[in-house]
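[audit] Reproducing an earlier prediction to check determinism. Same input, same settings, fresh worker. If the tokens differ from the archived copy the diff job will pick it up downstream; this log only records the rerun itself.
[audit] input (111 residues):
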Amino acid sequence: MSSLDLPVFSNHASCSDALEPDMWFPEEIGGKSGRGWSRTPSANFARAICRGCEAFTECKEYALQFQDLAGIWADQDRHERHAEQIERGIKPRPVFNTIVTQSRRLLDESR
């Protein structure tokens, strides 16, 4: 699998059946609210789906490979993944917009 291919687990991930794919990609809002964007009701619902997903571990390991990957993956936003990358000594690769575009396309096609 090249770094721009969708992971094989995406076919059996719970998010592939999601009615609202955008909940995994909440809009980031800066300012006083900080990272409140990743704890909106919609994002929290996405996180709950992640926690019950059979592809959780594969998804998490996939997402931890990349720097600043957009969205919620395996119940983590990009800041939470970054903290885990530091904790585990993972040197993430830069993420390309193609990955995000392909991920959104997959989620949209699954609806």
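[audit] rerun output stored. Observation attached for the diff report: The CA atoms of residues 43 and 80 lie 14 Å apart.
[audit] end
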